[in-house]
TrEMBL record:
Designated gene of the protein: manA
GO MF annotations in UniProt: mannose-6-phosphate isomerase activity; zinc ion binding
E.C. numbers: 5.3.1.8
Cofactor binding note of this UniProt entry: Binds 1 zinc ion per subunit.
GO biological process terms on file: carbohydrate metabolic process
Protein's UniProt name: Mannose-6-phosphate isomerase
Family membership noted in the UniProt record: Belongs to the mannose-6-phosphate isomerase type 1 family.
Keyword check for DNA-binding: no
Length: 317
C-alpha cells in the first residue's frame, strides 16, 4: 500500500468572521464562501479530517489512514495524528487568543494535545502586524489590564513581512492581523481561548464567547520570546532552510530551482506547495505537483527526486 506513492489530500475549509477570498484567488481552492478563513490542508483532526485523493485509500480520511494503516507512518505511537497543517487568510483581525499546553488540555479539556504552533508568513499587506505577547510583568498586572480593557497597553504588536517565521509555544498571547496569509504548522488541536475580540458581532448580531479565566490560567506571564536558530543547506537544485526543530515538529522551507535527489531520513513528511510547480519522482512513478497541492510522503518511500521551480513548506514530527 502506497509503497512508492505519495498521499495527496483534499483540504477542508472553515468559514470565519475574519476570513476572505484569498484561498480561492491565490491557491485556486473551491471555497464555500467569501468569508473563508481556514484551509485545513493536512488534517486528521475529527473537526475537519482531510480526504485522500489517490491510491488504495482514495476517499478515506487521513484519520482513517492513521488508525488503520500505521505502517504508512513508521508505526509511530499515539492514538491521534500529531500534526495539523493550515493555510489561513486573515482578511480581518483574528481575536486575541491563547492555547493550553498538553497537560492542561488533557486534565481540563479531555483532549490529547495542547496547541503549540508556528507561522510562515506567505504574504501580507504593507503595514500588517501580529499581536505576539504582552507587556504585563505579573499575573496581577495582566488580570488588571484585561479587566479594565487596557488592550493598547497590554498587547505587544510587531510589524511583519512576507517570508518571516514565528514560533508560538502554548501559553503565548497572540493574534494574526488583518491582511495576512500564513501557513500554520501546529499540534493537532482545536482548543482556543479568546481573550479579546474587538467587541465585534457575528452575522446574527452576537458577540463571540470569551474565555478570560482559562486564558489567564494558561498564559505565560511575563511574556518570553522563544529562541530558535534556523539553518540553511544547499543541495543540488534545492535550498533547504530548517526553520525550527523542537519537541512537536521540525519545519523546513524548501526552495527548488532545478533538480534534487533526496533520501527520506524521517518517518514521513508533510508537504505544502506554496509557489510554482515541479515533478515529484518516487521509484518509477512521476507526479506533477503545483501551487496549492498538499501531500504526505509516507514512510514506505525511501527516496525521491524533485525537479522544477517551486517553494514548499515541509514538516515532520
Amino acid at each position: 500500500m502506497y509503497e512508492k506513492e505519495p498521499i495527496f489530500l483534499e483540504p477542508v475549509f472553515k468559514e470565519r468572521i475574519w476570513g476572505g477570498t484569498k484561498l480561492r484567488e491565490e491557491f485556486g481552492y473551491d471555497i464555500p464562501s467569501d468569508t473563508t478563513g481556514e484551509c485545513w490542508g493536512i488534517s486528521a483532526h475529527p473537526n475537519g479530517p482531510s480526504k485522500i485523493k489517490n491510491g488504495p485509500l482514495e476517499g478515506k480520511t487521513l484519520e482513517f489512514a492513521w488508525g488503520n494503516h500505521r505502517e504508512l507512518f513508521a508505526n509511530e505511537p499515539g492514538d491521534e495524528f500529531p500534526l495539523l497543517i493550515k493555510i489561513l487568510d486573515a482578511k480581518k483581525d483574528l481575536s486575541v487568543q491563547v492555547h493550553p499546553d498538553d497537560k492542561y488540555a488533557r486534565e481540563v479539556e479531555g483532549e490529547p494535545y495542547g496547541k503549540t504552533e508556528c507561522w510562515y508568513i506567505i504574504d501580507c499587506e504593507e503595514g500588517a502586524e501580529l499581536i505576539f505577547g504582552h507587556h504585563a510583568q505579573t499575573r496581577d498586572e495582566f488580570e488588571k489590564m484585561v479587566e479594565e480593557g487596557e488592550w493598547d497597553k497590554l498587547l505587544r504588536r510587531i510589524p511583519i513581512s512576507p517570508g518571516e517565521f514565528y514560533y508560538v509555544p502554548s501559553g503565548t498571547i497572540h493574534a494574526i492581523g488583518a491582511g495576512t496569509m500564513i501557513l500554520e504548522t501546529q499540534q493537532s488541536s482545536d482548543i482556543t481561548y479568546r481573550v479579546y475580540d474587538y467587541n465585534r458581532r457575528d452575522a446574527e448580531g452576537n458577540t463571540r464567547e470569551l474565555h478570560i479565566e482559562a486564558s489567564i490560567e494558561v498564559s505565560i506571564i511575563p511574556h518570553v520570546d522563544p529562541h530558535f536558530d534556523p539553518t540553511r543547506e544547499e543541495k543540488q537544485g534545492l535550498t533547504s532552510e530548517k526553520l525550527i526543530t523542537q519537541e512537536y515538529f521540525t519545519v523546513y522551507k524548501w526552495e527548488l530551482d532545478g533538480k534534487v535527489s533526496m533520501e527520506s531520513e524521517e518517518k514521513y513528511l508533510l508537504a505544502s506547495v506554496l509557489e510554482g510547480e515541479a515533478e515529484l519522482i518516487t521509484g518509477d512513478q512521476s507526479y506533477n505537483i503545483k501551487k496549492g497541492d498538499l501531500f504526505i510522503l509516507p514512510s514506505t518511500i525511501s527516496g525521491f527526486s524533485l525537479e522544477g521551480k517551486a517553494h514548499l513548506v515541509v514538516s515532520h514530527t
